[in-house]
Amino acid sequence: MAPRGCAGHPPPPPPSPQAWVCPGKMLAMGALAGFWVLCLLTYGYLSWGQGLEEEEEGALLAQAGERVEPSTTSTSQPHLIFILADDQGFRDVGYHGSEIKTPTLDKLAAEGVKLENYYVQPICTPSRSQFITGKYQIHTGLQHSIIRPTQPNCLPLDNATLPQKLKEVGYSTHMVGKWHLGFYRKECMPTKRGFDTFFGSLLGSGDYYTHYKCDSPGMCGYDLYENDSAAWDSDNGIYSTQMYTQRVQQILASHNPTKPLFLYIAYQAVHSPLQAPGRYFEHYRSIININRRRYAAMLSCLDEAINNVTLALKTYGFYNNSIIIYSSDNGGQPTAGGSNWPLRGSKGTYWEGGIRAVGFVHSPLLKNKGTVCKELVHITDWYPTLISLAEGQIDEDIQIDGYDIWETISEGLRSPRVDILHNIDPIYTKAKNGSWAAGYGIWNTAIQSAIRVQHWKLLTGNPGYSDWVPPQSFSNLGPNRWHNERITLSTGKSVWLFNITADPYERVDLSNRYPGIVKKLLRRLSQFNKTAVPVRYPPKDPRSNPRLNGGVWGPWYKEETKKNKPSKNQAKKKQKKSKIKKKQQKAGSRSTCHSGVTCG
């Protein structure tokens, strides 16, 4: 029977309590028996998060003749917990004024550091690739769109990933949730990119209960994996938010908290399809728009799941030495229930509504808790920050685009970051009115690009859907156009400039007023573009069809080297011809090549 709620059972009791709570030397049998009774009593309280205070626990252990050990881990390396939500809009958290209840997120953020100048990418694959490599899209070849299920494409194998770097310094690495970084070859799978274990989906979306996904008619398959195989045995038809949380609880219950842990939890929620367990709709009956109501239920379910993850961290002894990072992967999609108000634009665009994200850090290790960070932070920054916290090293010859921003977050120091390349996409639909002339001969403004330098943000080409969508504008048919503030991009423009610090909602275009700043940012774009690698966006491969792979989405590409290897008979014939040729050469005979040219 499936457990109640979307977030699973309360955490089960941790295994081998004698190894973690009651260590010590061998005592006489009588004393050992008494100690075991005491140990079990103490463990019974601790396993449900209602244990004795540390002082009381220490006193009891001392009475049993044991040396008192710290209650937290003995390692100086912190446990790293990165939680990535999918398609959560900027407004869609309680502390940003949402009508959706998110008490867990609100509490964790209030007790930690809220990131209020935090940027990601506008769609799934780019954000995930930049998090795991610390590199902009232009430096991995993934600057266009997402990785499609049928494409022979994945995160380039020559990039050292975050889990690989953490494993070098002794971390156990586990991933639960959505991968979306390609899988056409076995080498692209999460377990080949640094994760000890993987439980989740390979594609960008799918049914929350059945875990099936159709990419197009006739292209349908199952998408739930346990490491490198379809997870048929682990699939009980449970809602994915609940299922992933249960797996996180199992990982924490079986891991020794004295050993450093990296846990990447990439929830499917709140990405479409809009599905949620029924009981989460109770508080949102007043929301008229059905998509918004479903979305609200999904987010409430996610909030409860994160509460249970936090409880498990405390229950199993990880919390005091943990750093919890929460982030959305991109802005919300208004037509699928999300809201980015009062920001402009939506998921898939380079307006603030597509790239400015909900994010915070929660940790007992923070020096300045309960604060707001307004310094510039980007998703690439987690790569060097987490490696540094883990006491790891980044090779000097590897060029990354992220910065170590831990002191910025923990101590309130200035961010080392002064700019962000949001992207340069050379194959996106060109802006009809863009030209080199409009870019002062520095840049072709038909190309979609966006860059932030200090307070200034520049966009060129076609930035995407640019409306402001107020929360009250939702109707049963999606956003009501009568209530939107619409902007038409067919007015001849292909360059926009905003002072984001003064105008975070992008209402006042300053490109005509400050041409000097426009030129400066165009030159910076041009400099970045010189370092770009070719775009990786291959056509679909019919061999990717799940029908050819047992009904499962998974690796299909195989190197065709076997076809080039000669068969045994061919090899024998070749050897025979070679012997004949040598005999002919010794006899002084002359032969001619197939082209008719005399061979000597």
UniProtKB/TrEMBL annotation:
Gene from which the chain derives: ARSJ
Keywords linked to the UniProt accession: Calcium, Glycoprotein, Hydrolase, Metal-binding
Recorded superkingdom: Eukaryota
Protein name: Arylsulfatase family member J
Domain Sulfatase N-terminal intervals: 78-390
Comp. bias intervals (Polar residues): 588-600
The protein's required cofactors: Ca(2+)
Keyword Ribosomal protein: no
Family to which the UniProt record says this protein belongs: Belongs to the sulfatase family.
Keyword Metal-binding attributed: yes
Gene3D superfamilies reported for this sequence: 3.30.1120.10, Alkaline Phosphatase, subunit A (3.40.720.10)
Name of one Pfam family that matches: Sulfatase
PANTHER family per UniProt: ARYLSULFATASE, ARYLSULFATASE J
Start-end of Basic residues biased regions: 564-585
Region (Disordered) location: 534-600
InterPro entries: Alkaline_phosphatase_core_sf (IPR017850), ARSB (IPR047115), Sulfatase_CS (IPR024607), Sulfatase_N (IPR000917)
GO CC, alphabetical: actin cytoskeleton
GO MF annotation list: arylsulfatase activity; metal ion binding
Species of origin: Cebus imitator (Panamanian white-faced capuchin)
